[in-house]
Amino acid sequence: MRIFGKARHRPSASWRQATDRAFTLIGDGRYEDAGALLTRAADLEPWLSESWFNLALLHKFRHDWEQARAAGLRAVALLDRDIGAPDWWNVGIAATALQDWPLARRAWQAYGLRTPGGATDAGEPLGMDLGSAAVRLSPEGEAEVVWGRRLDPARVEVLSIPLPSSGRRWGEVVLHDGVPHGERTTSAGHSYPVFDEIELWAPSPVPTWVVLLEAATESDRDALEQLAADAGFAAEDWSSSVRLLCRMCSESRMPSDEGDGEHLDPHDHSEPGHPGPLGHRTDGQLWVPERECGVAAPAGLVKGLLDGWVADSPDSRDWRDLEEVC
C-alpha cells in the first residue's frame, strides 16, 4: 500500500521514504515502529491529508479507535473534495466502533451514502439494513466465512452458526473493514461481498452446541432447522453447510451452492495450501442420515428443542452427544 497525495505540491522525498518504510513495517506487523515513522511523516507534511489518513489507517489496524477518529478527522479537514473520499469511510468505522453515532452518520453521508432518519435520530444507531453479506471471521488466523445481515456500512450481524474454532456465536455483531476480500455468488446471479472482521462489536448470550443427528431424510434435517428458527434461534447442518477452501479461493469470487434467501449456505473454512472445495450440499440420492449439527439456543431450551423434533417423527429422527462448544 502506497499513498501519495495530490496536494498543493509534491510531498518531500523524506515523507515518501518514511511512508514507504512504515507500510513495509505494517505488513510485517511492526505497528509501533510504523507509528513512529508515520508520525514523523505527519510532522514533515502536516498540511497533507494523506499524512493523517495513513495514521488513521494504522490506528485502525491497532484497534485504537480514539486515535483513529482523531487522525481521521484531521485527514478529512484537509481534503480537496467533498464527497466519496476513503478518509470518510475510516472515520465511519472508528465512529461506529466508539458508538459515536452523530459522527458515523456524518461520515457515511460525506462518503456519499444515504442514511435513514433526521436530526432527531442523530444519536441513535443507524440501522440501515443493507441486506445480506458474508464476513470473514478471524481473517489473520483460522479464517471462516459466514453469512450475516449488514446493519450499516461497518457492522454485520452473524446469521450462520460459526464453527467453535472461530470463537464467534450466532447473533453476534462484528465490526468489519470497508474493502471486500472476495465474493460469493448464487445460482440466481446475485453476488455478495466478503468483508474481513476487525473485531467483535456486540457479543451474543446464546451458546453454540454441537449434536449428532440421525435424520432419515433431508426433510427431517430441514424440520429441525425450521423448528429452531420458529423458536427464535438457529440450527445448521454443518455436515453439508461447511466447505474447506484454501485462502486464495476464499478471497476470490466463489459460488454459493444455495439460492438466495436469509441463510446463504455454505460458509467456508479457510486453510493454507490449495485443497480446493471439499464439501457442498449433499445430493439427495447420497444422503447420509448421521449429521453433525450446530445449534444456537439457550441451555434451558436446547434439549427440549431436540426432543420435540424427535417426537414429531420418532421413526426417522434421533439425536445424541450434545455438547456446548462456544
Q: Helices and strands in order, then pairings?
A:
Elements: H1 13-27, H2 31-44, H3 49-61, H4 65-77, H5 86-97, H6 101-111, E1 131-137, E2 144-152, E3 155-158, E4 173-176, E5 183-185, E6 191-202, E7 208-215, H7 218-230, E8 234-237, H8 238-241, E9 242-246, H9 247-250, E10 253-255, E11 267-271, E12 290-296, H10 299-311, E13 317-324
Parallel strand pairs: 1-6, 5-10, 9-11
Antiparallel strand pairs: 1-2, 2-3, 2-11, 3-4, 4-6, 5-6, 7-12, 7-13, 8-12
Describe the structure.
This is Tetratricopeptide repeat protein. It comes from Streptomyces rubrogriseus. With 326 residues, the protein is α+β, with helices and mostly antiparallel strands. Helix content is 34%, strand content 24%. The two termini are 37 Å apart. It has a five-stranded mixed beta barrel with strand order 1-2-3-4-6. The N terminus is likely disordered. It has a domain of 103 residues: Serine Threonine Protein Phosphatase 5, Tetratricopeptide repeat (Alpha Horseshoe). It is elongated, with a radius of gyration of 23 Å.
In short:
This is Tetratricopeptide repeat protein. The protein has helices at residues 13-27, 31-44, 49-61, 65-77, 86-97, 101-111, 218-230, 238-241, 247-250, 299-311, and strands at 131-137, 144-152, 155-158, 173-176, 183-185, 191-202, 208-215, 234-237, 242-246, 253-255, 267-271, 290-296, 317-324. It has 326 residues and is of the alpha+beta class.
